[in-house]
Amino acid sequence: MKTAFFSILAPGKHLPPHRGPFKGVLRYHLGLIVPKPEVSCGIRVADETRHWKEGESLVFDDTYMHEAWNNTNRDRVVLFMDFVRPLRFPASLLNWVLLNAIAVSPFVLGAAGNYLAWEKRFEKVVNAEKQAKAA
Q1: β-pair partners for 4
Q2: What burial class does residue 131 get, using C-beta atoms within 10 Å of its C-beta: 0-12 exposed, 13-18 middle, 19+ buried?
Q3: Mind listing the pLDDT tens digit for each residue in 8-33?
Q4: Distance CA 24, CA 63 (A)
Q5: What is the model's pLDDT at position 95?
Q6: Sign of the CA dihedral 51, 54, 59, 61?
Q7: What's 90's DSSP letter?
Q8: What is the overall mean pLDDT for the chain?
Q9: Phi first, then psi: what are they for 95, rounded to 5°?
Q10: d(CA 116, CA 119)
């Protein structure tokens, strides 16, 4: 596994068509909260459309053009994970090298730094609110 988080798609939202940058991983979605009707909340990958179902999985190659939408009045929540694409040697070795190079790239390290800065700002706000309530 390379990435994991909860993907929350708000009511009425649409993620426009896009594609992932690297074919070395596959994407996994596990439906956790899928509003009814399920047909109003879906994902299109290339020319195939699917609809999440609670407790069910989807796996796809995100280098294909894909988009997602939630045409309901409730949040859609999926567990989102990227995992290493199974490949035969020597392609698996090349994929390992590239994934590790990406992990230490300025793009990823910059994003990690931005996240840590956000966490520090958030912690200051929470602490200020606690102090205000205690006063």
Answers
A1: 81
A2: exposed
A3: 999 999 999 998 877 888 999 999 99
A4: 10
A5: 64
A6: positive
A7: T
A8: 85
A9: -60, -45
A10: 5
Alpha helices in 35-105 (DSSP H): 91-103
What tokens does 81 get? 């994970």
120: its two tokens: 């520090």
Q: What residues contact residue 63 under an 8 Å CB cut-off, 6+ apart?
A: 19, 20, 21, 22, 23
| Contact predicate 70/35, CB 8 Å | yes
Report yes or no: 46 and 66 within 8 Å, Cβ to Cβ: yes
User: For residue 134, what are the CA distances in angstroms to 45, 123, 127, 129, 130?
Assistant: 51, 16, 11, 9, 6
pLDDT digit string (tens) for 56-113?
A: 999 999 899 999 999 999 999 999 898 877 778 997 887 677 777 766 666 555 655 6
Residue 68 to residues 18, 25, 30, 125, 126, Cα–Cα distance (Å): 10, 19, 14, 33, 33
The predicted model scores a pTM of 0.71
